[in-house]
# Entry
Amino acid sequence: MSQLKFYFFDTSAIIKMVLDEPGSEKVNNILSSMDSQVFTSWILLSEALGVLKRKFLDKELCVHDYQNLVKKLFRFIEDRSLRPVDIVVENEEAILQTNTFDIVQLSKKYPHLDAADVAQFAAIQNSFLKWFKVKNGIKLVTADKKLAQAAKSEKIDVYKVNS
# Structure
């Protein structure tokens, strides 16, 4: 039996899950692998929904396609193919687990990245995912070259889906 592999999908990888574009085949191979677990952030899911909405508003997607892609994305969450990890419920209140301090510090270090990008680093480095990073390795899956370069500076393994 092969060793379990862990991945963290950024927004570009999430979009490739539902839209057929360069890199989608690599993303779908990860998703269909029996020895893979895929994580992401609720922040990135919101960002992905924003990308789909923008494509709809820009008339790149018709209403039917837009609705189907949103449903498809939520099916990945429902069937646990994609596991958002950074929000917990305590005392009936949703709490973002990613520490604001970590995001602020990383934003200073990487001013060319947005808050969602550096939140990924904080989630990988400071949540339970850090144990995967140490033990078996966790790979950030992205098509974003600047994000990939910064992740490597943070000693986060990267799997590029745009090459």
In short: Helices lie at 11-18, 24-32, 42-57, 63-78, 100-109, 115-126, 129-135, 145-153. The chain has a mean pLDDT of 88. Residues 17 and 93 are 30 Å apart (CA to CA).
